[in-house]
Specification:
alpha/beta; elongated; four-stranded parallel beta sheet
Length: 171
């Protein structure tokens, strides 16, 4: 009798800053150990391995990858009917530049948001007016995934936006 196979896909360290790296790995390790005790044969891969096309065949994929590269390579598994916990399409839809468009058309209340391409200047003052909160500041966040470092989410005065955007673009 053949044991069912699962592949555990670990998130890149940069997507789990500070203490989250240990927490993220511990969560997946715990689940994998439990499934191994139930008879599953497990293989563990890091996100970099996925991005290099190393995706072994299995009946179950436990996905913690966050990057677009890995997610785009994992997406065909969904079309093939394979069970993927934390589907690649769901991960991609949580990237801020996609999420903003999805929520904007959904009727769900969502803070006014302006998406800017890297290297662009700050929005016109009239466009910033809806972004300024009661403290006179705006939020600047990277457009793809959640923060990898402190500088990826900033609260600043509108006049600081130009320099901050230049720094985002340089990174």
């Amino acid at each position: 009798m053949t044991r069912p196979r699962l592949v555990a896909l670990y998130r890149r360290a940069s997507f789990s800053p500070r203490q989250h790296l240990q927490n993220d790995r511990a969560i997946l390790d715990h689940v994998v150990r439990h499934l191994e005790e139930l008879g599953w044969l497990a293989e563990r891969l890091d996100e970099d391995q996925v991005e290099h096309g190393r995706i072994p065949r299995a009946e179950l994929y436990l996905n913690m990858c966050q990057g677009a590269g890995a997610s785009e390579l994992l997406a065909p598994l969904e079309c093939d009917g394979v069970t993927v916990v934390n589907r690649a399409s769901s991960v991609l839809n949580c990237h801020r530049h996609r999420l903003v468009h999805t929520l904007a058309g959904s009727g769900v209340e969502f803070p006014h948001t302006i998406l800017l391409p890297a290297g662009s200047g700050p929005p016109e003052p009239v466009d910033l007016a809806d972004l300024v909160d009661e403290s006179g500041t705006v939020w600047l966040k990277r457009g793809d995934v959640h923060a990898e470092r402190t500088e990826d989410v900033l609260r600043l005065r509108p006049q600081e936006l130009g320099d901050a955007l230049d720094q985002f673009s340089a990174r």
